[in-house]
Amino acid sequence: MITINEVREQPKILAEVAKNYEEIVRRTREIIQKANISQIDFVGCGSSYYLSMGLSMQARRMSGGKVKSRLLSGSEVMLGLADVVPGSVVVGISRSGESSETVAAIKAANMGGALTVAVTCSEESSISRFASVSLEIGFVKEEAIVMTKSFTSMSFLMSALCRDLFTHELLDRYLEVIPSISQEIIANANFELELIKAGTFTHYAFLGYDEYFAACMEGVIKVTEISLSDVDCYQTLEFRHGPKSKIGQQSLAVVSTNPKAYDQELKVAHDIMRLGGTVLYIHSGPSRNEHSISTGYPQKDFGDWFLRAMPFQLIGIKRALIKGVDPDSPNNLTRVVEI
User: Fewer CB atoms inside 10 Å of the end CB: C or N, the chain?
Assistant: First the structure.
């Protein structure tokens, strides 16, 4: 099965990104640094939209708020619903490099006076041709329709670049840590998901804040497209305001915990369990709950945000297999969306 193999390949691919990081980013980093920019906007569609969400938050966080950043969909820019800021950097993200709205957004950003950057897993693609500069990780060969290792690879590359640009002293350790912990995350996630029989639930709720919310939203796409399941995503405490009405014995809630909100998130988790639901936690530090996955990430800068998408990838696959759905052939989807 292609999809599960590509999920398992992620540690190897992340290590390849780290190994080749300097060669990949050198020219783009130099151009961005010379531009002395004050705003970076991230543009994507589908999974790349939520990838852009996490990166926009990382850019603001790692720059200490000195750099503004927006999350934009390709269609917003293409249709003129979002203005391009002259002198800003606009980063267009597309696995194939051919997503019509994102390519059109890059063209519009060029016309609007922005420095455009393409991030893609395809060499010599349309987005690379139209962007001012490009970051290509062509060694990320993904055969499946759904994005798994391409999502984490592009996220890792750009999260590392945020550190490179704004907090350079953190870069080397980051490039070392992320690949080394990813293998353990997949193993731990698989163990816990088997323990709670994650594929047997009929309703899923993914809860989190900040960059972890972006990973949860990517989880919604993964589980929905792979297994055709009922999936919700909310900021954790917002789940109390109506959505918890769906909770029952067939509900699995995944709480991607935030150190600033943990005590209150725990209360929401207890509410869910009182209503008959099952709760799985994702932590950065040591696990403190009955069913939990630790990323083992040592910093408090949310740099593990995209690694938290991996348990959701596995949930989608496990649910698909239980339902008899082929995760390699999601309904009504193609590898590239063109209009």
Answer: C
CB 179 within 8 A of CB 153: no
Task: Find residue 133's DSSP bridge partners.
Answer: 117
d(CA 106, CA 88): 12
- Summarize pLDDT for 284-324 with one digit per residue, the tens: 987 777 899 999 999 999 999 999 999 999 999 999 999 99
Cα–Cα distance between 312 and 255 in angstroms, integer? 11
Contact 284, 261 (CB under 8 A): no
Contacts of 298 (CB under 8 A, 6+ apart): 177
Q: How far, CA to CA in Å, does 181 sit from each of 91, 258, 284, 297, 304?
A: 27, 19, 11, 7, 10
pTM for the predicted model, two decimal places: 0.96
pLDDT beyond 70 at 339: no
Q: Would the pLDDT of 333 be above 50?
A: no
Tell me the one-letter amino acid at 299: Q
- Spell out where 80-217 has E strands: 89-93, 115-120, 133-136, 203-208
User: pLDDT (tens digit, 9 = 90+) per residue, 234-250?
Assistant: 999 999 998 999 999 99
Bridge partner residues of 251 (DSSP): 203
Quick one: how far is CA 135 from the chain centroid? 17
Residue 283: name the closest of 270, 296, 300, 267 by CA.
296
